[in-house]
Structures are given as structure tokens and as C-alpha cells.
Amino acid sequence: MKKTPLLIVEDDETQARILAEYLAHKGFEVDKAYSVAEAKKHLAQKPFDIILLDWRLPDQDGLTFLTELKREKPLTQVIMLTAFATVERAVEAIKRGAYHYLTKPVNLEELLLIIEKALKELRLQKEVELLKATVAELSEPQITDIVAESAGMKEVLRLAAKVAQTDATVLILGESGTGKEVLANLIYRASPRAKKPFLKINCAAIPEGLLESELFGHERGAFTGADRAKPGLFELAHEGTLFLDEIGDLPLPLQAKLLRVLQDGTIRRVGGLKEIRVDVRILAATNKDLEEMVNKGAFREDLFWRLNVFTLKIPPLRERREDIWPLARFFLQKFAHKHHKTIRDFSREALEALLSYHFPGNVRELENIIERAVILAENEVITKEDLPFLMQEPRGEPSSLLENLPLPEAVAYLEKQRIKKAMKEAHGVKTRAAEMLGISERVLRYKLAKYGLEEP
Ligand SMILES: Nc1ncnc2c1ncn2[C@@H]1O[C@H](COP(=O)(O)OP(=O)(O)OP(=O)(O)O)[C@@H](O)[C@H]1O
Ligand SMILES: [Mg+2]
């Protein structure tokens, strides 16, 4: 592995030697300079990631040199060393861009820890600079609402752009919150049907009893309450596009009906006999493993093959970490605008926390985290404290209150609290919250609506 270049600028030869020997032993490529002039010669020859800089040097004071250094090589991490420690000095050094400030005699182990930390941050900083450059180069003004910087996402978009030109059924797969709906929107907008209707239905959110009539419509008197005939989404989407979201939650009887539309392009309203021709392009999405559902008999194999003509799989965010930073910036701008706040950036710690988080709730979780951070932020920079997933959560059940309530209300109260807590901990990701609560997502959605806990 390539050694990290490190420069020691220190006029006390013994000090310089002790530091140099220790750090060389720890695997650094060490150079020594006894004055600012010598240091400049070294710097002209090669870049250094780390510089240990003495406060007092024979030809110039270290602080002035520090200012110069940070101006010319902002990515160099400078650690100041001094024999006379004062708070003012430390503050002054940090203000001028020093990474850290240590008093002599230097504790070598402490120094090593600080250097390692500085290097870690430097790497992050470099990655960010690189990403920023790429983003600036590649950002396409016409597609402003989908961020795709990782190779994985770019490939998905490339394929999406191609299939958009056709009438082929597209099956969009990916974990919850990865952006399946965003992609469906994009395909629609890029398709020749862009001027025709685009209708969406979430098969998981609608009670099974209503779903059939939503999709296929019904005739008057088809069931109690059907006092007039109503066209379904397939008819309404005629010549356009229909997005069947959460297709994995489509009950088996409806799967059979859907198969029929896909095969011969006709539907029959509930309670009706007439065959109605529809010309609809289908986009479908699910976070379920359809193949496994087929194996278990929960999803029709013939329908699966009909849907699986052209599949786009969106990778989870943790497998395309290059997107985290551009997405975070994108959401920062979006929510700063929405909440009328002037926020320019993330602090280094905040960014580091974001980049090292695993985002089980994918892009939606990131989006929720940033919106909360924007709301919480006290100044122009989002700090680690603004990121709720790192915050402590104060809790305590008001048990006496519960004991005094009538049982149904106590149960409702408890249920509501638990759901709120789970939703908070899951950052609004319903599948995750449902999992935490040990209930199905469908039940969770129902309860959220029942208790008015739905986000707006
Ligand atoms: N690439 C992206 N660029 C910008 N925003 C994105 C991107 N991907 C997702 N989002 C945003 O993240 C949120 C979740 O995306 P979306 O609803 O499309 O996910 P999903 O895969 O359909 O999730 P679910 O399975 O839970 O329905 C949305 O607010 C969306 O705008
Ligand atoms: Mg979705």
C-alpha cells in the first residue's frame, strides 16, 4: 500500500527526530523541515496530506505559515504543535484552519490517533470534491427531480429511457423507498404517451373489496351501494399509462383479471357482461420478491411472466453510496426552499454521519432525515445534532394515565403511541415500522389512517 506523505516542520532537532522515527515506524513517508523556507522546498516537490507544524520557527511564525498553507492547499491537514499552550492560541489555530492543536511534549499515541482521524476526514473530503465535480459535469437541467450519480442508477436510467419509447410492460423492482414511483413517472414522461393520461393505483392501500371496482369499474347495481355505473382505471387510462404500484399485494382473484387485460386487452366491469377494449400501457412496481411469491403460490406464475417482460431493478441506497451526497444536497435545497430557510451546507461531521449510515429505508429515509434536519437547523449549516437518527429519544409511558382510562381508550392510546414511536424510529418508512410492530403494512396503513397519523 502507498505510504501517506507527512511533513514535520519543527526547528528543535530532537523533537523532530522523535516524531519522525515514531511516525516512520507507523508506516508514514516522513520528511523533516527545520524552517518555513525548508518546508516550502519540500512542498514544492510533492503534496503532503499531513503537516505537523511548530508554532515558533526561526524564519517565520507557524501561524502565518498556516494561513498561507490553508489558502494554497486547503485539503492539507495541519496539526499545530506548541510548547506554550493557551486557549487563545488553540482557538486562533483552529480558526485559521488547523485540524488540531497539541502541546509539547507530544503524546505520540494521541498524535497518531489524531492523524488517523484527520486522514479519514481528508479522504471523505476528497471524495466529496470529486463527486461535486462529477455532479457539475453531468447534471442535466431537463431532468431535475431524479438524482442518479452512481453507476448503478445511471444504468437503470439508461434502460428506462430505452423502454420508455415502447409500449412494453415494465416491472420496477426495488426495496421500499428506492424510488420506484419516481422511475415510473420518468418512464411515463419520456414515453410517446406523455400527453395522455397517467393514472396510479396502490394495490396495497385499497381494501380488497374496493380494488376490483377501482381497477375495472362496475355496472349499476353490481353490489349494494353501486347506485350508478362507474368506469374503472383501465377505462380511464385508455390510450395512456396505468401504474400499478405494490403489484405484489394484488389479491389472487384480481391477478387473474389483470392477466386477462394484459393478454387480450379487454376488461369487464364488475357486474357487467360487455367486453370493453382498452389500450393501456402498464407500469408495475413492487418491493416484494415476486419469484418467491410464485413459488409459494401467492402470485400467479403466468401473470409474473406477463409482467416480467422488461424488469428494472433499482439498487438499494446502501449499494450506491455515491448517490447519498448528491441526494442529500438535492433534498437540502428542496426543503430549505419549502421551509423558507437559508441553509447552505452540511457540517463535516453531519456529512460523515450521512455517508456512513446504512439507510434501511433507502432514499425516502434520507429524504425524511434531511427534511427534519432542515426544520431543526439553527443556522446555515446542518450539523450532526440536526440529524435525528443520531439523536437520543427521551421516553416514558404515562402509566397512571393509562390505568385510569377506560380499556378501549387505553388500548387505542397505547396503540397510537407505539405506532408513532415505530414510525419515528423507522423515519416514516412504513414497511419497517410495520415490521417493528409485528403487523402487516396493510394493517399499519389502516391504523395510521384511523388515528389520523398519516403524513400530509
Ligand atoms: N433518484 C432520486 N432522486 C430524487 N428523489 C428520489 C430519488 N429516488 C427516490 N426519491 C424520493 O424518495 C422518496 C421515495 O421514492 P418512491 O416513492 O419513488 O419510492 P418507492 O420505491 O416507490 O417506495 P415504496 O416501495 O415504499 O413505495 C420520494 O419522495 C422520491 O421523490
Ligand atoms: Mg412506491
UniProtKB/TrEMBL annotation:
Domain Sigma-54 factor interaction residue range list: 146-375
Extent of the signal sequence: none
InterPro entries assigned to the protein according to its UniProt record, in alphabetical order: AAA+_ATPase (IPR003593), AAA_lid_NorR (IPR058031), CheY-like_superfamily (IPR011006), Homeodomain-like_sf (IPR009057), HTH_Fis (IPR002197), P-loop_NTPase (IPR027417), Sig_transdc_resp-reg_receiver (IPR001789), Sigma_54_int (IPR002078)
In-chain residues carrying the UniProt-annotated modification 4-aspartylphosphate: 54
Residues of the Response regulatory domain: 5-119
Database matches in SMART domains: AAA, REC
Keywords: Activator, ATP-binding, DNA-binding, Nucleotide-binding, Phosphoprotein, Transcription, Transcription regulation
Entry GO MF terms: ATP binding; sequence-specific DNA binding
Short name of any one Pfam family annotated for the protein: Response_reg
GO BP term, example: phosphorelay signal transduction system
Xref: SUPFAM superfamilies: CheY-like, Homeodomain-like, P-loop containing nucleoside triphosphate hydrolases
Protein name: Sigma-54-dependent Fis family transcriptional regulator
